[in-house]
Specification:
This protein has 6 helices and 5 strands, in the order E-H-E-H-E-H-E-H-E-H-H. It has 144 residues and is α/β, with parallel strands linked by helices. The chain has a single domain, classed as Sugar-phosphate isomerase, RpiB/LacA/LacB (Ribose 5-phosphate Isomerase B, Chain: A, 3-Layer(aba) Sandwich).
Length: 144
C-alpha cells in the first residue's frame, strides 16, 4: 500500500517511528511532514496528505499534531477524505469498520509512541463493514 504521512512539530518523533513500522510492513511511504521539532503551522503539512488521499495518489493517510484535532479538521475539508481522530484501539477499529476512515489522525501529546504504532497497525488491518454504513458514508459529501 501507499501511505502518506504528515505532521507538525508535536508529531515528528512519532512520525519517524511510524514510518519505520510502515516500511517494515512493506508499505510505500510519502512523507509530507516536518522533520523538525521547530514550531510550524500544521495545515501546511496536513493539506498535502489530504490532497494525496483525495486524488487517490495513496491508499491511506496518517496525520499527527499535538491534539490531533487541528490535523483532522484540516484534512476533513477535502472531498472524499474521512479523517478520524483516534486515541484508543476501539476508536480506530470503529473508524475503519463503520466510517471507512481513510486518514488516521493521532494526538501525539496524548498517546504513547507504543499506542501510536498499535493504532496504525489496527487502522491498516481493519476493513470497512459496508452494509448500512455505506449508505451513511454516501450522505457525508455536501451537495449544493
Amino acid at each position: 500500500m501507499k501511505i502518506a504521512i504528515g505532521n507538525d512539530h508535536a508529531g515528528t518523533e512519532y512520525k519517524f517511528a511510524i514510518m519505520d513500522l510502515l516500511k517494515e510492513l512493506g508499505h510505500e511511504v510519502k512523507n509530507f511532514g516536518t522533520d523538525s521539532t521547530e514550531s510550524v503551522d500544521y495545515p501546511d503539512y496536513i493539506h498535502p496528505v489530504a490532497f494525496a488521499v483525495e486524488n487517490k495518489e495513496v491508499d491511506y493517510g496518517i496525520i499527527l499534531c499535538g491534539s490531533g484535532n487541528g490535523a483532522a479538521i484540516t484534512a476533513n475539508k477535502h472531498q472524499g477524505v474521512r479523517a478520524a481522530l483516534c486515541w484508543s484501539r476501539e476508536l480506530v477499529e470503529l473508524a475503519r469498520l463503520h466510517n471507512d476512515a481513510n486518514i488516521l489522525s493521532l494526538p501525539a501529546r496524548f498517546i504513547s509512541k507504543y499506542q501510536a504504532l498499535e493504532y496504525v497497525k489496527v487502522f491498516l488491518e481493519t476493513g470497512f463493514e459496508g452494509g448500512r454504513h455505506q449508505r451513511r458514508i454516501e450522505k457525508i459529501p455536501v451537495s449544493k
